Every structure is written in structure tokens, then in C-alpha cells.
Amino acid sequence: MNEEIFDDELSQMYEESEKPSRVLDASTFQTPIKNLKTRKPVFVSPGHSVADAIHLMQQKRLGCVAVTENDKLVGIFTERDVLIKIAGKVDPKTLKVGDVMTANPQAFQPEDSVAYILNAMHVGGYRHVPVVDETGKPLAVASVKDIVSFILDHFAEDVLNLPPEPIRRTDQREGA
């Protein structure tokens, strides 16, 4: 009976090793942006106070808000704008979003590939990229977190089955 269990374990090991390996290649990144798991954007107008926009971002736990006029994207206001342009410099209650937003940000459409977002994030140093329809209305904001989730979805077993802590060897000798 023990030999049967041993044989079953061996055959299972061989079957697992014969599974095709998952590959993350250029074709993976040709997936349309609409297949990413993104959040719907939260909108503010350029006339909103920066303090209100920050409060909204905190309340919704967002890294940015889309700035719109007449349902069209005119800018993006991000946590980086808060840190670099506002914190310790000016009063966010008196400042308007339109004064510190990134105007006319690079935006993509749902049919564009994920590779375009990756390129924009890498080259431009962005952490959030707007996705708009053909009229310029914001549909989503793709974040670095969305891209990481997309990549991890291809390797869910490999990542989710890791032990809770990395296994490290001890550099100190035990004993005398």
C-alpha cells in the first residue's frame, strides 16, 4: 500500500513538471486596457479647492482624481501634486485644483494595449494614467497597482503559494 502512495506521488510530480510553463512575453502586454481591473475615476472641476480634492482622495482611498470640464478630461490631480507642489508651501483651502493639476495628461483609450500604459508610466514617471472614450470623457484611471495585479494574475499560484515570510539562512553560528 505504501508503494502505491509513493507511485502516485511520483506520477503527480512528473505530471506537474510536464505542464507548460507560463510565459510573460510581449504578446501578454498587447492585451487591451479594458481588460485591466481598474477603478472608475472620481471627478472634480478645476475650480474645486485643493483641500476638498485631498479630502475626497482620502475618503475614497485614491491616489488621484480626474479633473473635468463639460465631461471632458482637462487634467489629473495626484498625491504627487500634493507632495511636490503644495505640502508646506501654500494653504490647500485657498488654492484651486486647476492651479496645481497636471493639465492635459497623456490619456489612453480602452482598446489601446497595456504596453502603452507601461511605456507611459516608465518614460513619464506616472503612477496613474487616465483612460478616456473617443470624446475625452474619463472612463477609468489605470494605476501601477492595476498593472502589478495584471502581471500577478498570470502567476497567481507562484505568488499566492509563497510562505508568509522569506526563508533566509542564518549568518551567525550557533553554539560555542
Features:
alpha+beta, two-stranded antiparallel sheet, extended, CBS-domain, 176 residues, four-stranded mixed sheet
Task: Describe what this molecule looks like in 3D.
The protein has a single domain, classed as CBS-domain (Roll). With 176 residues, the chain is α+β, with helices and mostly antiparallel strands. The longest helix is centred in the first third of the chain and has 17 residues. It is extended, with a radius of gyration of 23 Å. A hairpin with a 5-residue loop joins strand 5 and strand 6. It contains 7 helices and 6 strands, in the order αβαββααβαββαα.
Short account of what is shown:
38% of the residues lie in helices and 16% in strands.
CATH topology: CBS-domain
The class by helix and strand makeup works out as: alpha+beta
Number of helices: 7
Tally the structural domains: 1
Strand order within the widest sheet?
A: 1-2-3-4
**Form type:** extended
Mean pLDDT rating: 85
Please estimate the helix content: 25-40%
What topology emerges from the helices and strands here?
Blueprint: H1 2-18, E1 43-44, H2 50-60, E2 64-69, E3 72-78, H3 79-86, H4 97-100, E4 102-103, H5 114-124, E5 128-132, E6 138-143, H6 144-153, H7 156-160
Parallel strand pairs: 1-2
Antiparallel strand pairs: 2-3, 3-4, 5-6
